Amino acid sequence: MHTIKTYNQISNRGLSRFSAKDYIVAGDAIGGDAILLRSHKLTIDEVGDARAVARAGAGTNNVPVADCTERGVVVFNTPGANANAVKELVLCGLLLASRGIIPGIAFAESQAHLSDHAELSKLMEQEKKRFAGSEIAGKTLGVIGLGAIGSLVAEMAIGLGMKVNGFDPALSVEAAWRLPSKVKRIENLSSLVANSDFITLHLPAIEATRGLINDEIFNAMRPGTSLINFARDEIVDAEALLRALDAEKLGRYVCDFPRHELMGRDDVI
Q: CDD domains in the record, alphabetically (predicted)?
């Protein structure tokens, strides 16, 4: 019998693969032969006597890999396991960034005092052009990171009629085979951002990528570019991001990493 200690909420679809007769899988497990986690920031003390640490996700930046290596503890991830889910989030981000969906909803809800249906309908018809935004078909999407997620995002964008540029200096042969033939590989990051209307990040948070999107990269962007980050908060230099937004160099920032200084801004989703 083996014990696996879990952190965070792990899908039962995955946990059910561990048969009850061979494994004890629980968040309150004492000790544990292995650890299974998602976003929990694991410390080496929590590793204890575990022989393996598995992350249900693409990166391992919340696991003390170096310390585990010293102890001989195996650390592995599950790249691509959430690729489709992230792809769909990117689609949502593209539409929210290009269309006035959120301000349109806010405007409609602000008219709750109007009880006359005809009056309300007339007002909505008059004002809806304010929130039309623009189509994404024909626009260029720059994909930074062409692994399991990035290749799916590229394929989706091509299906929506977008042009796709891709940048990934560490692209593997396997990943290259997954890429649609219509993706134009760009060897220089500044060139990619300078020729993209939308940019989406799909990179792990490692030493080489922390602060990758900095003042130099923001300055290379077209005015009004939208940046989508469902990868890692640390990839974008927070101070440079604020400068780019304030200077209207960046038109929209879409992410799932809330920061106090970004709250309440119309150009941040």
A: PGDH_like_3
Of 212, 199, 190, nearest to 140 (Cα)?
A: 199
Q: How far is CA 149 from the centre of its chain?
A: 9
Pick among 3.40.50.720, 3.90.1640.10, 3.40.50.300, 3.30.70.260: CATH of 2-76 = 3.40.50.720
Walk across the sheet containing 184-185 and list its strands: 184-185, 163-167, 140-144, 198-201, 225-229, 250-255
Q: What are phi and psi of 201, to 5 degrees?
A: -100, 135
| Percentage of residues in the chain having pLDDT higher than 70 | 100
- Taking Cα atoms as reference points, which of 153, 159, 140 lies closest to residue 226? 140
Q: Which residues contact 250 (CB under 8 A, 6 or more apart)?
A: 218, 221, 225, 226, 227, 241, 244, 267
Which is it for strands 34-37 and 74-76: parallel, antiparallel or unpaired?
Answer: unpaired
| Identity at 178, one-letter amino acid code | R
In eight-state DSSP terms, residue 144 is E
84-109, pLDDT tens digit by residue?
Answer: 999 999 999 999 999 999 999 999 99
Q: What is the mean pLDDT of residues 17-35?
A: 88
Split at pLDDT 50, 70, 90, the class of 28 is confident
